[in-house]
Design a protein that fits this description.
globular; Nucleotidyltransferase, domain 5; binds zinc ion; alpha/beta; about 325 residues; binds 5'-O-[(R)-(carboxyoxy)(hydroxy)phosphoryl]adenosine
Length: about 325
């Protein structure tokens, strides 16, 4: 019989719960987005996020159990995101998970949100090859890693300033396009032309990323050009981002020769990035591992996958853990 795990994710502005089997098959996944709540402010307001999580968490967990057709007492474990993220938002999910684990008498596993994103490749591919080169691009992070085994990574490089999602969101806010910026910039970019020659920061420098200068270049151009064409600004900005990301993955493939590429994190929802990554994979004859578009952004299903993998390797977590807003991935040195 399959053991079932309840996963909870509240690190930022999505209240999410999922039921995942130890066969890594997702039985249910519920995501309540707070986008409408934060949109008027052009970004996530931490205190509002925490309060919304408090209001939503019980019903979202109930919905995930109902969708899976089970009761809490049918569960074998609970997994919850412990960081990185907003401290108050994380605290809501952790408190709920601890209370439920105590009430139902099941083990509790703390999960690193970044490991969740990296494990999201299992949401579209059961047979994940290792090692693979993994690009994690989200609102909070931009890093290139090599996944050597489930839960075991080496870091190739990361951003020295903004994450890519942050750059998208800041450019979108400057252009008055609302929050989050990724989807709307992508949509505009699809009908624009890459003709503005924006910089491709740190293209030639190893595996380090930087997006702050690109963001400033876009803002300066818009400020100096009253009759700018917004589609072309979007297309030129997105093309610059994509060229950087693809160049860094290509460099890693040339250096390490991995047979598979993973692209994960909220920006992996971008149809433009998905297409560019597929082109690269085709060129190298490698497999592209990428979550379904709807599960690239924050969700609890990916926390459930990472939760099972961590539980299998390390057993349950010491329950004294609390929110870890700056939690990093643990890397092996080789
Ligand atoms: O992974 P995620 O949901 O949250 C974090 O862990 O940060 O990523 C959110 C980020 C936001 O910056 C958002 O603008 C971006 O993912 N994003 C996209 C798209 N959908 C969401 N970026 C580009 N294209 C998209 N379609
Ligand atoms: Zn995320």
């Amino acid at each position: 019989m399959t053991d079932l795990l309840l996963a909870i994710e509240t690190s930022c502005d999505e209240t999410a719960a999922a039921v995942v089997g130890d066969d890594l098959v997702v039985r249910s996944s519920v995501v309540a987005s707070q986008i409408d709540l934060h949109a008027p402010f052009g970004g996530v307001v931490p205190e509002l996020a925490s309060r919304a999580h408090v209001e939503l968490i019980t019903s979202i967990v109930e919905q995930a159990l109902a969708d899976a057709g089970i009761a809490g007492t049918d569960l074998s474990a609970i997994a919850v995101t412990s960081g990185p993220g907003l401290v108050g938002a994380l605290l809501v999910g952790i408190s709920a998970a601890k209370a439920l684990a105590l009430g139902w008498g099941v083990p509790l596993v703390s999960v690193n949100h970044l490991e969740g994103h990296l494990a999201s490749v299992y949401l579209s591919e059961t047979d994940v090859p290792f090692p693979h080169t993994a690009l994690l691009v989200s609102g909070g992070h931009c890093m290139l890693t090599r996944a050597l085994a489930p839960g075991t990574y080496t870091l190739l490089g990361e951003t020295v300033d903004d994450s890519i999602g942050e750059a998208y969101d800041k450019v979108a806010r400057y252009l008055g396009l609302g929050y989050p910026g990724g989807p709307v910039l992508d949509r505009l970019a699809a009908t624009g032309v890459d003709n503005l020659n924006f910089p491709r920061p740190m293209m030639t420098e190893g595996y380090v990323f930087s997006f702050s200068g690109l963001k400033t270049a876009v803002v300066n151009y818009v400020r100096k050009t009253p009759d700018f064409i917004i589609e072309d600004v979007a297309a030129s900005f997105v093309a610059a981002c994509m060229d950087v990301l693809i160049t860094k993955i290509r460099r890693a493939l040339d250096e390490y020769g991995d047979a598979a590429i993973a692209v994960v994190g909220g920006v992996a929802a971008s149809p433009i990035l998905r297409a560019r990554a597929q082109e690269l994979a085709d060129e190298y004859g490698s497999t592209l591992l990428i979550p379904p578009q709807s599960l690239a952004t924050d969700n609890a299903a990916m926390i459930g996958i990472a939760g099972w993998q961590k539980f299998a390797a390390h057993g349950e977590s010491d329950r004294r853990f609390g929110p870890q807003p700056d939690l990093r991935l643990t890397y092996t040195s080789s």
